[in-house]
Amino acid sequence: QIKRSDLRLVSAVEWMDWGEFLLDQTWAADYFWIRLANNGSDFGRWACNYAGACGVKQFTNARGNGTYAGVRRSYPDAQLIEDFVEGARDHVNIAKATVLLFDLNLRLLVRQRGAAVLKDPHVSEYLFAMFNASPDKVLMAIARAQRAKSADWIVQLPRVDRRLVETQQYILKYRFLRDEYPVDSFLAMIPHQ
C-alpha cells in the first residue's frame, strides 16, 4: 500500500522552501533536484534545523525519544544505525527508516480508522502529514474533516493545532510533485552511480 513513487518524494517535500514554492512551484522543485544531483550523497547530510531534525529526511531525536528512536524500537530487526546523528547522515539508513516510519504510521491509520482507510484516496497524504507532524494530531484532523464534511481534509489541520500550518504546506508541496511535476523525466536526466 505504501507507494514507492511517494517515498522518493519525501526529501523533495522536506527541502522545498515554502516561500520559493509560492513564487514558482516548478522552480522550487527543479532547484531541489538540481541540488540533490550536484551534491549526491552529501545532500542534507550535515543539516540539522532549530528543532533538531537532521539529515536529508529531517528525522528528530528529542534526546532519544524522537521519531528515529521510535522507529528503531519498533523495528529492531532492521538494524538501523544506533547513533541518531550518524543514522540521519547515512542516506541508505535513513531511507530505510523512512519506509519503516511510513509502515508504522500506516499500521496506526488502519488500527484507528479501519481497513477502509487503505482505499481512501488521501491515504498517501495522511502518511506524509504523519511524517511531518504528530500522528495523533493528523488523526484528529482526519476525523474533524469527516465530521465537517470538508471538501479538503487539510483545512482541518490548523484547527487542531495552529502549528500544523506547516503540515498543510507540506501536503500542498506533495500534491504538486505527485500531480503536476514531471519527477520521472527529471530523474531520468540524473546519472546513477
Structure description:
- The protein has 193 residues and is mainly alpha-helical.
- The chain has 12 helices and no strands.
- It has helices spanning 4-7, 10-15, 18-23, 25-39, 67-74, 84-89, 91-113, 123-132, 135-148, 157-160, 165-179, 183-188.
- Helix 5 packs across helix 7, helix 7 (91-113) crosses helix 8 (123-132) and helix 8 packs across helix 11.
- The two termini are 29 Å apart.
- The mean pLDDT is 90.
Key features of this structure:
193 residues; 12 helices; mainly alpha
Present the secondary structure layout.
Layout: H1 4-7, H2 10-15, H3 18-23, H4 25-39, H5 67-74, H6 84-89, H7 91-113, H8 123-132, H9 135-148, H10 157-160, H11 165-179, H12 183-188
Helix pairs in contact: 5-7, 7-8, 8-9, 8-11
